[in-house]
């Protein structure tokens, strides 16, 4: 084998390794960004749900203050854990329905 062929082999090998490293870095960065995005979205959803629950508690407290004997008042502080989870599940289902309807609206508008 001549020297240019040997050099070409090593250049090709080095090129393949460098490309592999760049692909690995790019893929790792993309997965990292995706993980960060997912965590941020979960955090935003959690904060949104807390805000909704806080508003509901405030409204319930106002309602109780103005009409203590009214039926249908909500008091989330005294709800068992299962009822709170059911409420959260219902809110999630409602959000999903609203998103689907919004997507249908957007697709019809285009």
Features:
110 residues; single chain; mainly alpha
Walk me through the structure.
With 110 residues, the protein is an all-alpha fold. The chain folds into 2 domains: 1-76; 79-110. Helix content is 85%, strand content 0%. The chain is built from 2 helices and no strands. The protein has helices at residues 3-66, 81-109. The radius of gyration is 28 Å and the shape is elongated.
Number of DSSP strand runs: 0
- Basic shape: elongated
Rg on CA atoms, Å: 28 Å
Spans of at least 5 consecutive residues with low confidence: 69-73
How much of the sequence is in beta strands? under 5%
Helicity level, as a percent range? over 70%
SSE order, one letter for each helix or strand: HH
Main beta sheet, described? none
Rounded average pLDDT: 84
Number of domains: 2
Number of helical segments with 4 or more residues? 2
Report how far the terminal alpha carbons are from each other: 64 Å
Quaternary structure type: single chain
Based on secondary structure, the structural category is mainly alpha
Biased composition (Low complexity): 56-70
Region (Disordered): 56-88
Protein name: Thylakoid lumen protein
GO biological process, one term: thylakoid membrane organization
Give the SSE layout:
Layout: H1 3-66, H2 81-109
Region (Disordered): 56-88
Biased composition (Low complexity): 56-70
GO biological process, one term: thylakoid membrane organization
